[in-house]
Amino acid sequence: MKNGSYFIPRDQIKPFMNPGAMNNEEGLYICWETDPECARRVLPPMLDLLDPAHPLAMVYVVNIREPTFAPWYMEGGIALFCRYGQMGGVYFLNLQLSGPGAPMGLSSGREFSGLPKKICERIVVERNGNWAHALIESKGRRIFSIEAEIGAYNDPVMGHVFANAVPGRQDRGSCMLFQYEAGQAPGGHVAFPKMRLVNYDSVTDYQSWEPALITSLEMEPSLDNPWAEIKVVKPLGAAYSVNSNWVAGVTPLAEYEGDEADNLISYLFSGRWDRSTLTTSHTQRYGQF
């Protein structure tokens, strides 16, 4: 086997993330109305819900079959529809990844864009005729599970939310994300003195989009991955889609410093780290004492 090197000539690195694309991804897209009080609590204060009285949550669970930066991998994400000023988009609370390309998908997404990604044990997306289901399992918890029947949405509102998801059509969307700098506070604990709100500008080419009825949707409570916090008040529907998605650019929207920046970590922590990083009183140990 040929050995690599920790030095690679610069011209050989030019293809790196050029482009960063998720080609021929396939799976389920799900939407529901969630609890207004909860949605406002978990959304950073500089962002507003698109509809504060009837906030919408979205989940996608897909098999990313041909990424340009990794082997194939599975990915699922949970988001709230929001806006920054007049710019509408989504705010991701967390994304889960599994499969051979998951480590590269996680590192590229977190380092380049600030996406709140974690590795999980198992993601499944499956379709048989007009029935589809998907699940995400992390740290022994089934944090998301759905069954859907292809054919029609639960509610006509779903058609308006995803009006641009049309086969043969290209859609462009915004995702609000936070990039941060870590430092050390005078007391010695880790601090976050600078935060930057960015627009993750993505383009999607839709090869297919088939409306589906949510017949079952369950989320098991989890300390580390609390997807169940975004409760289902009213299911709007799902869709089974094959599409390709790529990053058009990541541009800064606003910058925050001092306590304002540091306090934002309360909204970002659970999407990126587990509770094990907060305690030394673990009940399970390995190796010598």
Written description of the protein model:
- It is built from five helices and twelve strands.
- It has a domain at 18-169 and 203-246: Acetoacetate decarboxylase-like (Beta Barrel), CATH 2.40.400.10.
- It has 289 residues and is mainly β.
- The protein is globular, with a radius of gyration of 20 Å.
- The chain has helices at residues 36-42, 102-113, 157-161, 258-263, 265-272, and strands at 21-33, 48-49, 56-67, 73-84, 87-98, 117-119, 122-128, 131-138, 141-150, 170-184, 190-218, 234-257.
- The two termini are 39 Å apart.
- The longest helix is centred in the middle third of the chain and has 12 residues, at 102-113.
- A seven-stranded mixed β-barrel has the order 1-3-4-5-10-11-12.
Number of strands: 12
CATH homologous superfamily (4th level) name of the domain at 18-169 and 203-246: Acetoacetate decarboxylase-like
Largest sheet: 7 strands, mixed, barrel
- SSE arrangement, N to C: EHEEEEHEEEEHEEEHH
Strand content: over 45%
Query: Helix- and strand-based class?
Result: mainly beta
Look up the CATH topology of the domain at 18-169 and 203-246: Acetoacetate decarboxylase-like
What would the principal axes of the Cα set say about the shape? globular
Order of strands across the widest beta sheet? 1-3-4-5-10-11-12
**Average predicted confidence as pLDDT:** 95
CATH class of the domain at 18-169 and 203-246: Mainly Beta
Radius of gyration, rounded? 20 Å
